[in-house]
Structure formats: C-alpha cells, structure tokens
Amino acid sequence: MESFTVRRAKTSDVKSIRNLVRPLAEDRVLLEKEAVAYYENLQEFFVAEDAEGNVIGCGGLHVMWEDIAEVRTLASDAAWRGHGVGHRLLAKLLNEARELGVSRVFCLTFEVDFFLRNGFTVMAEQSAVDPEVYSELLRSTDEGVAEFLDLARVKPNTLGNTRMITHL
Ligand SMILES: CC(C)(COP(=O)(O)OP(=O)(O)OC[C@H]1O[C@@H](n2cnc3c(N)ncnc32)[C@H](O)[C@@H]1OP(=O)(O)O)[C@@H](O)C(=O)NCCC(=O)NCCS
C-alpha cells in the first residue's frame, strides 16, 4: 500500500468527507449531518490523503466542556482499512486535544477493539460527567452531543454502540 499523510481539513475536503461518511451513516454507524454542519465545524477536522491527494480518511475532535472532548466522524476508506489510517488520525486528534487543554476524550462507537487498542476504555454509565456539567451540556444544540447525552440516560442503549473514554 502507498503512503498517506494526515493534515487539517480544508473547505474543499467537505465533499470527500461526506462521501466517506454517507455509507456509514446509511448503516447507522455514524451520524449523518447536513453539509452546512461540516463547513461550520471544519476546524475540528483532520483528513488523511493518499499520494495522489485523494481523501482516504477523516476524523473530528469536538470540544464539549473545559476538560472534555469527543472524537467524532472517524472513518477510513474501506480499501484502506487496516493500514494505520484510523490510528494516525486518532493520534492526531488526541494530540489536538492535549494542545487545547482537554484531559478526557470520549467516543461513541461500534469499533470497540480499535479504540481499546488505542488507549480507550469502556465507560461505566455516566461516571465521567458530573450532574452539573451534564445539565449544562443539555443546553447544547449540537446533534452529536445530544446523541451522547441521550445514550447516557436511555437504558438500554438503543443504538447498540459503546461509550468509551481515554484520559490524556
Ligand atoms: C474505526 C476505523 C476508523 C479504523 O480505521 P483503520 O484505518 O482500519 O484503522 P487502523 O488501520 O489504524 O487499525 C485497524 C487495524 O489494523 C491494524 N493495522 C494494520 N496495519 C497497521 C499500521 N500500519 N498501523 C496501525 N495499525 C495497523 C491494527 O492492528 C488495527 O487493529 P484493531 O482495529 O483490532 O485495533 C474504521 O474501521 C472505520 O472507518 N469504521 C467505521 C466508522 C466508525 O465506526 N468510526 C468510529 C466512531 S467515530
């Protein structure tokens, strides 16, 4: 397999990011969002590109609170899976979290083994968000945050994905 690089996303990557996300959203693995949401949140995103400049992976870091962020929309092209694209993107996002001063990073995922191998652990119900922060987070209009909070309350978890966390 050829080499790839990871860099910050540009506005011109949004179409490629959406193409990566669409089939995963159809399978309900990732949350589908409007194009405008990708442009508005562009600074959260990194992409991986192959030697020809094709986008082969993406991932975002969404800050939720002073010490909390979420890894979201982490995806690699099916043809590139198992070549370290996800690992390199995730490492970049966690580094970004450190630089921003975040100490806890969440994810909601079906890819439990992948995240375990990348330093995450499965969260005990709600334990990482205290009730005060939780009630503040309820004010968020962000769909991903809403999904995250929903899963904390709804038992059993209706989507069947797992809430995971890493401490930086
Ligand atoms: C999760 C996902 C991003 C992983 O992407 P990936 O590019 O295949 O990730 P990697 O190649 O780094 O790791 C996958 C496996 O390849 C192996 N691997 C092979 N070559 C590797 C290399 N050079 N470096 C690192 N790992 C390598 C790893 O051991 C790893 O095994 P694991 O998944 O059991 O930990 C990808 O499967 C995906 O897009 N899933 C759907 C979307 C999703 O669920 N995202 C998470 C929620 S936001």
TrEMBL record:
Tell me where in this chain the N-acetyltransferase domain is found: 4-143
Against Gene3D superfamilies, the record matches this protein to: 3.40.630.30
Q: Name one Pfam family in it.
A: Acetyltransf_1
- Keywords attached to this entry: Acyltransferase, Transferase
SUPFAM superfamilies associated with the record: Acyl-CoA N-acyltransferases (Nat) (SSF55729)
Which GO terms of the molecular function aspect are on file? acyltransferase activity
Q: What is its EC number?
A: 2.3.1.1
According to UniProt, the name of this protein is: Amino-acid N-acetyltransferase
Taxonomic lineage: Bacteria, Bacillati, Actinomycetota, Actinomycetes, Micrococcales
